[in-house]
Amino acid sequence: MGYEITDTETLTFEDRPGLEVVVKRATTFQEYERIERISVEGSGEERDKALADFAETFIESWNITNKGADLPIADFGRLPIELKFAILTKWMGLMRPDGPLGSESSNGPDSPAPPTDEPDGE
């Protein structure tokens, strides 16, 4: 049996109870780098376009409503900017590899036990 990858991930937000955004996980490095630059480069118009492209490409579904009606993903631009960035940031976190070891890890001495992959005396 092989390793099964998942196509989507459901994002949840501690500061927005009940909000769920289902996003696609797979991307190319080029797409990721383009999206990563949204927060630091480009005009407002370019950023709006990039965020709209992100929503269209990577958001599968969400449970966001406006005045009691479901808000289509195509209306991503109508979201408050902090919510746009919260969704984007959470998605980007899925793409990043695990960070460095935490402070509880040390670069201490080697174990006194002999290696288990070598025969004794060699």
Description:
The protein is 31% helix and 15% strand. The protein has 122 residues and is an alpha+beta fold. Strands 1-2-3 form a 3-stranded antiparallel β-sheet. A two-stranded antiparallel ribbon has the order 4-5. A hairpin with a 7-residue loop joins β1 (8-12) and β2 (20-24). The two termini are 36 Å apart. The model is unreliable at 105-111 (pLDDT under 50).
Q: Could you give the topology of this structure?
A:
Layout: E1 8-12, E2 20-24, H1 29-36, H2 44-58, E3 59-62, E4 65-66, E5 69-70, H3 81-95
Strand/helix succession:
EEHHEEEH
Shape: globular
Mean pLDDT: 82
Strands of the biggest beta sheet: in what spatial order?
1-2-3
Rounded to an integer in angstroms, the radius of gyration calculated over CA atoms is: 21 Å
Q: Tell me the span between the first and last alpha carbons.
A: 36 Å
Uncertain runs are: 105-111
From the helix content, strand content and strand pairing, which structural class follows? alpha+beta
Strand content: 5-15%
Could you give a short account of the major beta sheet? 3 strands, antiparallel
Please report the total strand number as a whole number.
5
Helix fraction bin: 25-40%
Counted by DSSP, the helix tally is: 3
Descriptors:
three-stranded antiparallel beta sheet; 3 helices; globular; 5 strands; alpha+beta; two-stranded antiparallel ribbon; 122 residues; single chain
Concise summary:
The protein is an alpha+beta fold. It has 3 helices and 5 strands, in the order ββααβββα. The protein has a 3-stranded antiparallel beta sheet. A two-stranded antiparallel ribbon has the order 4-5.
